[in-house]
Protein: DUF881 domain-containing protein
Organism: Bifidobacterium choladohabitans
Amino acid sequence: MSPLFDGSFSRGEHMRHTLRKKRDEQMPKSIPPRRPGRVRAPSDDTQTGAFPVVRRRPLRTLNSNATRVRLVTSVLVALMCALLGFGYAVQVRNNQSSYQSLSEEELVRVLDETSNQVDKLEERKSQLNQQLTSIKSAADKQKEAARIAQQNEQSSGILSGRLPAQGRGVVVRVTEDSDRVDASTMFNLIEELRNAGAEVISFNDVRVVTNTYLLDTRTGLQCDHAKLHSPYVVKAIGDPDSLQNAIQIAGGVGSRIKVQFHASVSVDQSDSVRIDQVRRVQDYQYAKPVE
């Protein structure tokens, strides 16, 4: 018996071994035999020095990009809506808390001031309507308009700051301590007096009119080109009780000046507040009266 058939191999195994040996002998030496379970690409040949082929990633389609843009946009819009809602809720809560902290008497004062402003606006509207009707019904409209203008000259001169004024009102004094009161706070004080019905206001030596402005400087404040220093004296002609309540109301501008700037604020009522400061008539370049 041949040594190949010594019992260690069967006939089938012997034939497969012989065929595999012949196939390996016939293959070129430069090409390594194929191993079962691994497929080698032609470009993986290390003897030829070729590099493996790396396939490019497929480009993203327009649909996928559009979907991603829509998703990002939706997220940003939702975030902005959430921020706006949060800001609105905080503002409403602050307004509610500011009114909730007021006492019943203080709420009545605020309501009275608002009602007085509405009544004055309605009264002024009625006066203007009567004057307009009088001009339209007059035979000589120019003469009637001149008469009404002369009639309103005194009141308009006081409102525009061309004429001095005297009447009941208050005198507000703000004296700084270690901290300086800024221009925005003093402007709020003037606006509170206006909202309370002040007809004429002066700030130290400056007559306050519609185009009055305040600025911060190194040494104090600047009001309409005039440099002012503490103590600041604000005179206002109007209903004394309403003007005093506008400054001394709890949580109002007077309290903020005391707490934030550690300054002293005093409000004195007077039956004779005199404001002698006047303003020069402004020369209008573009505005012309309606004929």
Summary: The longest strand covers residues 264-275.
